[in-house]
């Protein structure tokens, strides 16, 4: 680390015990992963220096943006001893905003909160797509890990253009039109000359992205939300069948959320140990009591319409009311009721591009431990019900609550399982890790491989995908023979 200090200054790197403890922390069941050091570059040129020094000294780097991917690993690396490169500490500038063409050029430290405030300061011409996670999460880091939002611009990686990437040899590369110096379409055109290489830098370790444009949509004058509750766990298949045509026909412009009872109430409640004696999962009678208290169902469907005025959206609301109420089970919740509910307003915020801290209440359900299981769910009622039964069975068997939100598009939903556990209990942590392995195995058996993964499952997840591992390993060997950038991330290691 002396070489970094002598080149970039004393403040560019830290090896203090306090810093290593902070950057090794995560909420995952396998526990903290201590880095060898932490570096704080201030520019793309600094990152290039770090990469070249890492090659020279045989050190592996672990790039992170803001470290707010809670339940997926935070700053901590896949392997002990990696040097965490905290890009977001000092590289946090909004370089450019183009309101006419609808994009912002940002560095890795730009957060959803920061970008939202920038849009507000400029008069709300443009609207960001936020997650329901931490407002201080990094926009660029979330996109590169293929996180997503809820507006029509929900595909955050799909909305990136004009990336600047520091390659494992320290050279700078920009895919697409950005590979031509001075191209005026760098931030506009993803489909230029030759193969589209943007994708190899998502969920990978082939380079360090230091800048990119994120495309933004015009903010609509009016946003009107709606919700419907369904009373029974067994209603899921029918709910999915009702949701699918609304998205396939683009009747509803936002994605549609189908939220389970405990995922909803867990944002406001903690596990009632005093009433259960620690029994997990939560008994059905208490689940019903919490639903009634907070006005949600076993499943709550939510979405929103955009238009010129709230009144202009009356007909759209009546259309979805007729569609859902034909089931005879749905209870309608109006926009005005949603605004008054701490739980339901989370959905209105996400459909409106407003970063929210409200969903972080889930982290308090069982003493701070959290991990995400994120399979894809076909928009077929019988398949969603199959996944529901499999997840509930495995989680019940290992003693954890079933908390899930299906975020639904036209053909597939993201099945956002948040699994909460007591991180201070070593036995429960081990049981949680065993449970995760059982979930992965069970989903393998029904034909649904693991998707976006927490850092403690990235190498294990990659081992199961032999064809992918073989190809990505060959690319890694060609680009990064010294394993300088995050070996093991998403299971990618050189051969």
From TrEMBL:
<dbReference type="InterPro" id="IPR036318">
    <property type="entry name" value="FAD-bd_PCMH-like_sf"/>
</dbReference>
<protein>
    <submittedName>
        <fullName>4-cresol dehydrogenase [hydroxylating] flavoprotein subunit</fullName>
    </submittedName>
</protein>
<dbReference type="InterPro" id="IPR016171">
    <property type="entry name" value="Vanillyl_alc_oxidase_C-sub2"/>
</dbReference>
<keyword id="KW-0285">Flavoprotein</keyword>
<dbReference type="GO" id="GO:0071949">
    <property type="term" value="F:FAD binding"/>
</dbReference>
<dbReference type="InterPro" id="IPR016170">
    <property type="entry name" value="Cytok_DH_C_sf"/>
</dbReference>
<comment type="pathway">
    <text>Cofactor biosynthesis; L-ascorbate biosynthesis.</text>
</comment>
<dbReference type="GO" id="GO:1903457">
    <property type="term" value="P:lactate catabolic process"/>
</dbReference>
<dbReference type="GO" id="GO:0019853">
    <property type="term" value="P:L-ascorbic acid biosynthetic process"/>
</dbReference>
<comment type="similarity">
    <text>Belongs to the oxygen-dependent FAD-linked oxidoreductase family.</text>
</comment>
<keyword id="KW-0274">FAD</keyword>
<dbReference type="InterPro" id="IPR016166">
    <property type="entry name" value="FAD-bd_PCMH"/>
</dbReference>
<dbReference type="GO" id="GO:0004458">
    <property type="term" value="F:D-lactate dehydrogenase (cytochrome) activity"/>
</dbReference>
<feature type="domain" description="FAD-binding PCMH-type">
    <location>
        <begin position="31"/>
        <end position="219"/>
    </location>
</feature>
<keyword id="KW-0060">Ascorbate biosynthesis</keyword>
<keyword id="KW-0560">Oxidoreductase</keyword>
<dbReference type="InterPro" id="IPR016167">
    <property type="entry name" value="FAD-bd_PCMH_sub1"/>
</dbReference>
<dbReference type="InterPro" id="IPR016164">
    <property type="entry name" value="FAD-linked_Oxase-like_C"/>
</dbReference>
<dbReference type="InterPro" id="IPR006094">
    <property type="entry name" value="Oxid_FAD_bind_N"/>
</dbReference>
<dbReference type="InterPro" id="IPR016169">
    <property type="entry name" value="FAD-bd_PCMH_sub2"/>
</dbReference>
<dbReference type="Pfam" id="PF01565">
    <property type="entry name" value="FAD_binding_4"/>
</dbReference>
<dbReference type="InterPro" id="IPR006093">
    <property type="entry name" value="Oxy_OxRdtase_FAD_BS"/>
</dbReference>
<dbReference type="GO" id="GO:0008720">
    <property type="term" value="F:D-lactate dehydrogenase (NAD+) activity"/>
</dbReference>
